[in-house]
Specification:
Elements (H helix, E strand, L loop, with lengths): L8 H10 L2 H6 L5 H9 L3 H25 L4 E4 L1 H6 L1 H8 L11 H4 L6 E2 L8 E4 L4 H16 L1
Parallel strand pairs: 1-3
Antiparallel strand pairs: 2-3
Helix pairs in contact: 3-4, 4-6
């Protein structure tokens, strides 16, 4: 592509790393919160970006479920996973054939460790908040203790 479009490697790296993905598709932002807001206003490119993102996540869930012969638990974590009820709902929508069913009331939570699956869901669906700073601190402590 770079050769065909006569784009130098540095410019191509910038395009691929800074202007592609959600930003390139939505034309709005790489931040899903901005994309969700624009999609709710009827922005077709933002809707497409959302749709492609959730489709891709569902493909991964399905592929891993097939590779493992099913799943017992689906965990949402990190920024989008722990903070966006809409994202969790869109990811789980259509996965009932795997035994995944979420409770809309339980799903209406942000950043709290909780079970959001329905009582009769074969697969438990959890939100587990991340704490990157704690992990970094523990890793740093371990390295420092090793160096003593």
């Amino acid at each position: 592509l770079a050769e065909q479009e006569n784009i130098d490697p540095k410019a191509m790296s910038h395009i691929l790393n800074k202007e592609s993905g959600l930003l390139g598709i939505s034309g709005v932002s790489s931040d899903l919160r901005d994309i969700e807001e624009e999609a709710s206003k009827g922005n077709k490119r933002a809707e497409l970006a959302e749709s492609m993102l959730y489709y891709g996540i569902k493909k991964y869930v399905g592929a891993y479920a097939a590779a493992m012969g099913g799943i017992d638990v689906l965990v949402f974590t990190a920024g989008i996973g722990e903070n966006s009820a809409a994202a969790r709902e869109k990811v789980c929508s259509g996965l009932d054939f795997l035994g995944i069913s979420i409770d809309p009331e339980k799903n209406n939570v942000r950043g709290k460790e909780t079970l959001i699956s329905t009582d009769d869901s074969r697969v438990k669906v959890l939100i587990i908040p991340t704490n990157e700073e704690l992990v970094i601190a523990r890793d740093t402590q371990s390295i420092v203790e090793t160096l003593k």
